[in-house]
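Technical note accompanying the year-one report. For the benefit of new consortium partners, we illustrate the data format agreed upon in the data management plan: each record pairs a sequence with a structure-token string. No post-processing was applied to the example shown here.
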Amino acid sequence: MISIGGTIGTGLFLASGLSISNGGPGGALLAYSLIGMMVFFMMTSLGEMATYIPVSGSFNTYGARFVDPAFGFALSWNYWYSWALTVAVELSASGLIMKYWFRDVPSWVWSASVLVIIIAINSFSARGYGEAEYWFALIKVITVVVFIIVGIFVAAGVLGGVKYGFQNFTKGEAPFVNGGLGVLSVFLLAGFSFMGTELVGVAAGESENPEKNIPKAIKQVFWRILLFYIGAIFIIGLLIPYDDPLLTSEDVQTSPFTLGFKLAGLGFAPDVMNAIILITVLSAGNSALYACTRTLWTMSHSNMAPKIFGRINSRGVPMYAMLLTAAFGCLAFLTSLFGDEVVYEWLLKASGTSGFLAWVGIAVSHLRFRRAFIAQGHTLDELPYRAKLYPFGPIVALLLCIVVIAGQGINAYSNGKFDFLQAFGEYLAVILFAILYLGFKIIKKTKVVPLTQCDFSRT
């Protein structure tokens, strides 16, 4: 449920309409299918490593052990930064969502309330985070399943009085709109929608039975993606034409899910969807704070962050690491409040791109993990879970991630002109990663770890 909670978010509930508008129903389905395949391969790579060495903040540790300590250092701070900015994003979003019901209450009141709630949840222990995320995820799952079922009835004419069939798949330029560029633009959007699936690996060190539970979660990822994303995109494509201007809006009242429920005659849809999107924000903020806290805790024990962040309280929670993350999120949020929108937008773009860099880290670490495992005389029978289609899987995941990262620059071109400042914002995460990697490598004089010296200890 942690894995599924990480995948279903505002990217599906709000941004899926933009995907169909940019690429058409066929282009959106193709792009989400390719990203789904990439995520599946990435998760199987993470699963193989996390079941054999279940450590908290796992894949950052793997980067240091199996590639280069400098690589692990850059991955760790990159991942911490990515999720710390997510805390700020969710604080901002909560204020906008609550405005739907309480227009006269200042947004900062709701943002502060959400911050207190997610800090309280994470303060209870890993069990508190896991329990909350379970119920958040369950609500999102039920919403998507109900939407798909209702959408099928609407498309067939059973609800709403109009039989849509497949007419929107053949309207105008559909099913593929804007050709290859349309698919690529959806490819970028789809990638951001799947951010968070790797959280099951971050939580591996605190799982009750990682050798049993993590493979179980990994095996279900593909079917979850197929049902929840591909299924929902297919239904939206059936019900709403790609050229409907409402698809490009990010208002909850024009969410593709809201529009679909309205076509079924459910007039209360906006209120229900706003409540569900609020739960999505709580879920994302909850997960972001957990991921940041565990990453910073791991870094402190690997001499990559001050020791104070490695201290835990009687409930096993790294409170200092959590408070620093919360403070950073607040500072980023305040930046947006005070009108420095250019810097804030740069940070947000860098946060999204850094998620792909984390996936690159997983793929590279797994390729090295398997080679080192064999080089040190181990056999594949010793692995509790074995990744599918190795080495094809991690190589495909790596190449697709690189395509997405490189493709960010497309957004800097508009009407034949190149916007340098926008391009800088798109590639800021890559620049920061390079600075972290090279800086640590030069100062610490680290080298790529020889395959025969990679550390397979489970602590």
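Partners are asked to follow this layout when depositing records. The two ends are 25 Å apart (CA to CA).
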